[in-house]
Amino acid sequence: MLSDILLNVLVLGGSLFILVKGSDWFVDSAERIGLSLGVSPFIIGVSIVAFGTSLPELASGISAVLNGNSEIVTGVVVGSNITNILLVLGLVATVGRVVKMDYDIMDIDMPLLLGSAFLMWFCLADQHLSRFEAILFLIGLTIFLLNSLTGHERGDQERPKSSWKDYLLLLLGGVFVKYGADFTVDAISDLAKGFQMDTTILAQTLLALGTSLPEVAVSITAALKGKPGIAVGNVLGSNIFNTYAVMAIPSFFGTLIISDVTLSFYLPFMIACTLLFALISMGGRVTKWEGYMLLLFYLYFFNHSFGIL
Known about the structure:
Layout: H1 2-36, H2 41-53, H3 55-66, H4 71-95, E1 99-100, H5 109-124, H6 131-150, H7 164-195, H8 199-224, H9 229-248, H10 260-281, E2 285-286, H11 288-306
Antiparallel strand pairs: 1-2
Helix pairs in contact: 1-2, 1-7, 1-8, 3-4, 3-7, 4-8, 4-9, 4-10, 4-11, 5-6, 5-9, 5-10, 6-9, 7-8, 8-9
């Protein structure tokens, strides 16, 4: 019994590494190939980078639906959004100086994020996501991408050359993402059986944490280099894309199951975290003490899930 659990933990760790690494290869090579073909640098930045930040969650969600574990989809979306706000932003605010907003996020980005959270609450209240509701999420995603396009100017850049290595990494990245996602979902399912826990809880904690680790590393590095405002953009973009894309796209591969525990605690907690994010962002900065508060809420979230304390 214990050996099986340890094996599944190792499989989960290895699968997450393969999934995240494959996502990096896929996104980086796709960006280079797109630039070499003359695609606008900003179009690539908006589409591929936005897609890439949520590729592990999206791949896990599609794999979960195809393998009969569709409750993982809402689990990883809700859990990733909570982790991004409480852990990523909290760590950045505590390791760096005051996190100042580089632009007015209350103009369109924060309303889009708040709208995505309440849209989830409205659409999932009946524990079912219809095809029409999935299309609503895709419309929200389109608005987000169009706003990103109109809010920036295209820069003139030299067209780089792509090599056979880029196409090889694109292929390998896709393979890694596919099988990494499959093994991750299987490991989460087996761990849930071993611990006799709801699969959704593990998806909203361990899987969400694992897929958010790259963002944690990038955001902390940016904060240490004196650019903590980047983390705010990462959290905003990732959470908006998570909710609108990762909720909608897997639903076209099968019926999504929304667990009771998601509706009773995790989804309301995610909405509360989003409202808290909006509240502390109204001043145009996130202080160190607010960062500590976010981390305390993340500890509460983890403790509520596993009953550690």
